[in-house]
Design brief:
By secondary structure, the chain is of the alpha/beta class. The protein folds into 3 domains: 138 residues, no CATH class; 62 residues, no CATH class; 218 residues, Ribonuclease H-like superfamily/Ribonuclease H (Nucleotidyltransferase, domain 5). Strands 7, 8, 9, 10, 11, 12, 13, 14 and 15 form a 9-stranded mixed sheet that branches. Strands 2-1-3-4 form a 4-stranded mixed sheet, sandwiched between helices. Helix 10 runs parallel beside helix 11. The longest helix has 19 residues. The chain is elongated and about 105 Å long.
Length: 468
């Protein structure tokens, strides 16, 4: 143990009362203490506040010493001596009693050459920013030693088209990497490391940022109104014991030896084609999902034709005949939650016409449809309660055949009780079906008062005399 270390231990022992008082009065439960023998002051810092003033190596050392002190039910105190450039850490037993104290300046403490006034406080509760060096100490910054480096960097950014920007805002970004800019500055006679270039860019208003999605249509008053109306409709149907389903078409999947994103546990990775060209696929599968909110059950009908309104409506009709009649005996109404676009969008005439013919008229159901606003498909329950778990279940597994795909869908389950069925639909659903305005006027369609473009009910039409 050195002479200085003995002196610092004696200083801590002599000031144990104010150290304990300062420790107990701090708002943090386990503050980091600092005894400055040069200033004759005692400081208490929260762990995060003290850590900010250290470099990377000092932060790692502080973390280890702080954890060790907590394990031993102690607290950490640093002793700083500016004259002898010492910063030592000690662990002391935690005080259990708050002490009141009054003491005078201790002559045995190491002193500066210049004496402080006699009324200078020894104990200061104010927690000032932590510094080891005096202000202005250490090596000079690069921009101070080389004042021309900042104008040179600005010129490089402008002359070589390094700066890009958004024409609608003041946001700007730099095209090249920090290493490339460092090399260009060195070629101009201004050597600087990557970190220095990054610090200079931060002073110029640049920083590392990721892409940020814009919130679509946040100023549309109908958006919030529609969400509230959908919630009220769901509550009304479920309370009455009526079926509520959420529908959507999952993205098309290539069937064959193609890469499927994700990883899976296996002894050897499966080999797949280098490129995912649709032209060499066996077929394209079109999974249409139906999620039953009340039963927490999913039903997926995998088509091999096209994603059309007819395919979507036929899937709903099949679900009702396979599951709905048995799960909801006697029900004559159905609530369908759908996106605002795609094959089941609110603008699609064929969607409404097929619903009228194949569900309302043929099955005798009154169908109420509520569309989520544009850009809000992520709130559709089928997306995050069914499709997300199917994607997790088959990630990393090439969908070589339709049977493998159906097996992965059927094997999807969750701890909350989700069960999924899957069926293959080999029907042909050609694109481009046209519905005339005259046929649209014959629909038994009733638009709701709240957001009528997104909410409507189709009721069974009376069968004409002689109709089969």
């Amino acid at each position: 143990m050195t002479h200085f270390r003995d002196a610092y231990l004696e200083a801590i022992d002599e000031q144990c009362v104010p150290i304990s008082e300062c420790y107990l009065s701090h708002k943090d439960n386990n503050p980091v203490m600092l005894l400055d023998v040069t200033e004759r002051r005692i400081y208490a810092y929260s762990y995060d506040e003290f850590r900010k003033g250290l470099n990377e190596r000092g932060q790692a050392s502080l973390a280890e010493q702080y954890r060790q002190a907590l394990r031993e039910d102690k607290f950490l105190i640093f002793v700083r001596d500016r004259e002898n450039k010492k910063l030592l850490a000690y662990s002391l037993e935690k005080p259990v009693v708050e002490w009141r104290y009054e003491f005078e300046q201790v002559a045995s403490l190491p002193r500066r050459t210049t004496e402080l006034p006699s009324d200078a406080p020894i104990f200061d509760r104010a927690r000032r920013p932590y510094r080891i060096r005096r202000p202005g100490g250490g090596r000079k910054l690069t921009e101070v030693k080389d004042p021309a480096i900042v104008p040179t960097l600005e010129r490089l950014l402008q002359d070589q088209n390094e700066v890009g920007g958004d024409p609608m805002t003041e946001q700007k970004w730099v095209r090249s990497s920090l290493r490339r800019l460092s090399e260009q500055l060195a070629a101009e006679g201004h050597p600087a490391s990557d970190g220095t270039v990054g610090r200079l860019l931060q002073k110029m208003g640049f920083s590392l940022k990721a892409n940020q999605r814009k919130q679509g249509r946040s100023g549309c008053p109908e958006r919030d109104e529609q969400f509230r109306y959908i919630a009220a409709q769901k509550q009304r149907f479920i309370a009455a014991g009526l079926p509520v389903i959420s529908i959507d078409t999952k993205k098309k999947e290539l069937i064959g030896p193609f890469r499927n994103p994700g990883k899976t546990w296996c002894r050897q990775a499966e080999e797949v084609n280098e490129h995912d060209f649709p032209g060499v696929t066996k077929c394209q599968a079109v999974p249409f999902g139906i999620y039953d909110l009340a039963k927490n059950a999913g039903h997926v009908y995998v088509g091999v034709s096209n994603n059309t309104p007819d395919f979507a409506v036929c899937s709903i009709a099949r679900w009702w005949q396979d599951e709905g009649v048995r799960s909801y005996p006697g029900a004559q109404e159905l609530l369908v939650l759908a996106d605002s676009g795609g094959s089941n969008g609110w603008r699609a005439r064929a969607w409404k016409f097929s619903l009228q013919e194949k569900v309302c008229d043929d099955l005798g159901l009154a169908v109420t449809v509520a569309h989520y606003p544009t850009g809000c498909s992520k709130w559709n329950p089928v997306e995050h309660r069914l499709f997300s778990y199917i994607s997790k279940n088959w990630e990393g597994k090439p969908l070589r055949t339709l049977e493998i795909m159906l097996a992965c869908i059927r094997g999807t389950s969750t701890a909350t009780g989700l069960k999924v069925t899957a069926s293959l639909d080999e029907g042909d659903y050609p694109k481009g079906r046209k519905v005339a305005s005259v046929d649209l006027e014959r629909l038994s369609l009733e638009a709701h008062e709240v957001c009528p473009k997104w909410n409507y009910t189709l009721r069974p039409r009376a069968r004409q005399h002689g109709a089969q």
